[in-house]
Description:
By secondary structure, the protein is mainly alpha-helical. The protein is built from eight helices and four strands. A two-stranded antiparallel ribbon has the order 1-4. Strands 2-3 form a two-stranded antiparallel sheet. The protein is globular.
Amino acid sequence: MADNKKGRDKQADDAERRQRERDVAAELSRGDEVEPPVEAGELADIETELESLEFPATGTEVVAAVGDREVESADRTYAVEELVPDTAEETFDSPAAVRTRVQRPTVAAAMKRVVEANEKLPNANLRGSQREAYEKTFRELEAIDADDDDEGIQAIGDWIVEQINDKEKLPGSRGVRRQAAKFCRANGYQVRNDEWLGI
Length: 199
């Protein structure tokens, strides 16, 4: 690879992608985390269909290829287009990256709303650690109580979209965590200071 800005940017992007994949694999293997609502084997057909795309692929390309395919979670059935942002700003490095994203449908649907609301902002960029922090906050809300119909995810997703629309900027990841902790405490869920939401 050439030692120029483009080459260094590609190396940095590749390193960041590999780190995200390692982080996702580590989180899924942790025993104290709730199981994803969709089994990986159930998503194999979607992943196989995606192999016809050239990766990295945009969200728009993924939606065009498999948007009408359905993903069945414990609560309901989602079309892939309900889980993947239909935008060129969202990119996936591989079919496995798409599978990982749609494996948690409630989190994916919330992130889709946030990404699409953010797309309306000039020069807004939801990538890297901020995006990961948003997703981790949604996953923590999902794990709070499996029987709450993911109302915490819905409430915090609504709050983020309101912040984007009203203030015309993305709320910081600490602000999102703080709002999520406030929601949990107001609804009777205990949040300890040593937890992700314990701000």
